[in-house]
Amino acid sequence: MSEIVLRNVSKTYDNGYAAIHNIDLTVREGEFMVVVGPSGCGKSTLLRMVAGLESITDGEISFGGQVVNDFTPGERDLAMVFQNYALYPHMTVEKNIAYSLKLRKLPKDEIRRRVEAAADILSLTEYLKQRPGRLSGGQRQRVAMGRAIVREPKAFLMDEPLSNLDAKLRVQMRSEILQIQRRVGVATLYVTHDQVEAMTMGDRVTVLRAGVLQQCDTAQVLYDRPVNVFVASFVGSPSMNLLHAALDNDGTTLRVGSQLVQVPESVFAARPELRAYAGREVIFGVRPEDFTLDGTGEVLQGRVGHIEALGSELIVHFGMDARNYVVEDKGGSVEEAEELLEATALTEHVRNVARVAPRSQIATGDLVPLKVTMDRAHFFDAASGESIW
Amino acid sequence: MSKQPSTATIRRRRLLGNRPWGVYALLLFFMVLFLFPVYYLILGSFESPSQTLNGLHGAVPTSLTLQNYHTLSQTFFSAQITGSLKGFYTVSTLVSLLVVGGGLIVNSLAGYGLARLKFKGRRLLLLLVIVLVIIPFEAIAVPLYYMLSGLRNTLIVQALPFIGSAFSIYLFYTFFLNLPPQLEEAARIDGAGPWRTFLQIILPNAKPAFASVAILSFIQIWSSYLWPLMMTSQPNVYPLSIAIGNLVKQQSTPNYGEMFAFGVLLVVPMAIFFIVFQRWFIRSVASLAVKG
């Protein structure tokens, strides 16, 4: 057991493409660290570099104080769980789990003891003699976990291990993986593109964008104090409403489209740098739950586009005359991005989302006053996208 | 509203089931067309010469005899002048073993290297392999003859040009390309080196590819004629294919019964080889078809 430390790690491919830029990251002993980011952000590459499957161009990777840059994957003594599980199809479950132990020439009794213990933890005992081809997705996932835990490795690496499972099983396996990790207590680096998975599983979450580390902190801090507009929009579902806005010259009135809201003194107390933005453009961010239908205080008028009734709450899509700020490379595949563009083209002015109490008396087409909880609103520099604190 | 099927249609469906009988008939026709020569060959080998070439009448078995096989074993009994049947079989078997066995090792490694290793000139090498697939053996037979003339009348020379095969390399290459690389990565993380990974992880999962290459190269080498004809002039190194040619040349009036019998002797080992490995072969062809 040991901590994983990445110091100034970079990766540039032969063709000049820089996949990873100067990443500093520490996964503490026993910590569950999730790396999250849109597809193509380099998160899998980062994991593979830690595993030793991918060389690093610059920097240093160490486990428990020992630099492992020149170690082979086998010598690094890690266990990895792959997205497609990568079980050996020609071996039984038992042999799959035992393979690494056999290579390390452990005594037969010891191998059997460890395999049986792992199978017991993962409820795989009755499947030990079967081949992976006959197992269900969830069972294969467990075999992959079994293969990882029998090693008693220095660290776990997991590359989107749940993305091949259906939604229900995914939620179940999330907690199973967490329980196993707590039990074994080794540093774990877990890669996913799913921010919900990241938030729910990680002791800490690292947000990566285009090979650059954006922020690494607990899920709550990422949510409450994102360092920039990318993290703000990536974390949280539905994501934060982002609007182009400007502070008036007096510095206390925010112009959002044609509407005005007062910025209370408490906001400036929390974000002293915001005072310097008097008379300048900012990006104004409001989480969906920070809009309420209680029509007093600082209010923005919005035209209701459509309403999703989820029972416990209403997701209200509404339009305003303010221009939305669009975060590029926010995530998902190219198709998803195109779909989104198409959808927004149809409903040009219905880009904002509010989460309000169920059974609220509103209907499509209504012009409703939405109160903004200003103390929980976010402000970003319009040019750099950095948070203003 | 869509048209209702008539009672006659329904009755017919009940009788014949919902099956494409027309397609079956067509397939049956082609099967007969393709199998008839084989049947004719086998039947003819058990008939007296007068019956053998009796047109379609010869296709009806009347009196069967082992005479042709008996004569063949007599003709090819004294190894000194003509070579013996046993000798031909031995030569053909040894040469085929060399080509199939050596070829599986050499070509699988080459294909694996091309599919997985990253090295300078990999694409060029791959292109070269593809070009070599297109070049027919006849085009390089003469230069090869001069290169290897020192080895004439040996077993090794009959196998040498066919062990390394561009076609086999390409077949292995496409197969390995389709194998998920995570398998090897998992093995590396488990602590296996490249050789162990190849032998314990890749090889057991590449049975279809190995079977296909084995079958195709066996059929090719077992029935090869031009190269052994160029490189052998002594009966003790004649493979079966040369021996059958010599039989034809020796006879002033062709005895088709004997030729047919020899033909059967030539084909039977190929058929056995194919039947043994076809389980994987069919699967391999199917998987290639799916993956494109």
Could you describe the 3D structure shown?
- The complex is a heterodimer of chains A (389) and B (292).
- With 389 residues, chain A is an alpha+beta fold.
- Chain A has two domains: 4-233, P-loop containing nucleotide triphosphate hydrolases (Rossmann fold, 3-Layer(aba) Sandwich), CATH 3.40.50.300; 239-381, no CATH class.
- Chain A is built from eleven helices and 20 strands.
- In chain A, helix 3 crosses helix 4 (108-121).
- Chain A is elongated, with a radius of gyration of 24 Å.
- The mean pLDDT of chain A is 90.
- By secondary structure, chain B is mainly α.
- Chain B has a domain at 82-240 and 269-291: Orthogonal Bundle (MetI-like fold), CATH 1.10.3720.
- Chain B is 75% helix and 0% strand.
- Chain B contains 15 helices and no strands.
- Chain B has helices spanning 7-16, 21-45, 49-52, 67-75, 85-116, 122-134, 137-148, 155-163, 166-178, 181-190, 194-205, 207-222, 226-231, 240-250, 256-291.
- Chain B is flat and about 70 Å long.
- At the A-B interface, helix 2, strand 6 and helix 3 of A face helix 10 and helix 11 of B.
